[in-house]
Amino acid sequence: MIFRAAFWIAVVAVFMPHEPDLGYGRPSLTGLAPPKPADWASVKLPAKLCADNPQVCAGAMTVGFDLKGTILNNIDRVKGELKAREQARSEDGRTTKDDLAALISSH
After folding, report:
1. Does 8 fall in a domain?
2. Cα distance between residue 91 and residue 97, in whole Å
3. Which of 20, 52, 80, 103 to pair with 42, CA 20 to 30 A apart?
């Protein structure tokens, strides 16, 4: 059985195509990392942006508040679901150990 495995490994190694040489050189970790920060990260905003464009500031603040509200609502909903499950489990009289034992015995 070991010889059969070695044979098939050798067959795959012989017939597997090698990495094509596209003329770009060998890839390395230094080539994969970006050489400079992204363009948007280095943008300097003018100091009087809100004074010059109040609509832009109002729009950005609205988007930020909407996003914050959505995130907080989702967190509150998940907390409520977890609390309801915990209460249902405690009313049922089972503990986490009982749940784990039932799960193990079912498999």
Report:
1. no
2. 15
3. 52
Task: Look up residue 37 and give its DSSP letter.
Answer: -
DSSP 14: H
What's the gap between Cα 16 and its chain centre?
A: 34
Of 38, 37, 57, which is closest to residue 46 (Cα–Cα)?
57
Tell me, letter by letter, the H, E, C secondary structure of 39-98.
HHHHCCCCCCHHHHCHHHHHHHHHHHHHHHHHHHHHHHHHHHHHHHHHHHHHHHCCCHHH
CA 11 – CA 36 distance, rounded (Å) = 45
Classify residue 59: in a domain, yes or no: yes
In whole angstroms, what separates CA 17 from the centre of its chain? 34
* pLDDT tens-digit series, residues 70-106: 999 999 999 999 998 888 888 776 555 666 666 666 6
Whole-model pTM: value is: 0.38
